[in-house]
Design goal:
two-stranded antiparallel sheet, about 140 residues, globular, alpha+beta
């Protein structure tokens, strides 16, 4: 049994959410996340962060979420599952390339018919959308 499997089983018994440690993450891979501002992120190994697409009010931009183990105060992302190798380079992530944002926005997302924006798992989109259409 691997160390991660043992830890996973311990976390389940303790009622904690299991996640992948930094040492098991692969550079430039897409991960399913439990994070403050996103459900998916690309691992940036040099900065030890996930590059995410964030929606805030009417803006959509790339930003970072720190791996949970990297900081007691700023760690906000727990990677739950490795999904796929992305076509990007570290330079694409550092430049906050539009193609990275588009990739993250369309990955496993559903576009809302009313407002045209992508629904994110972490947000109650229906409430936000209905409030926005009233304005």
């Amino acid at each position: 049994m691997s160390e991660f499997t043992e830890r996973y089983n311990e976390w389940l018994e303790e009622g904690k959410m299991p996640y992948l440690p930094v040492e098991e993450l692969k550079p430039l891979y897409l991960y399913k996340l439990h994070a403050r501002n996103a459900s998916y992120g690309v691992w940036h190994p040099e900065r030890k962060v996930f590059v995410i697409s964030r929606f805030k009010f009417v803006d959509n931009f790339l930003c970072s979420e720190v791996h949970w183990d990297m900081s007691n105060h700023f760690g906000t992302a727990k990677p739950l599952k490795e999904l796929e190798k992305t076509p990007f380079t570290l330079q694409d992530l550092d430049d906050r390339s539009r193609k990275v944002k588009e990739y993250l926005n369309t990955y496993d997302k559903i576009r809302c018919e009313e407002c045209g924006r992508y629904k994110n798992e972490w947000k109650r989109h229906e409430e936000w959308c209905s409030e926005r259409t009233k304005i």
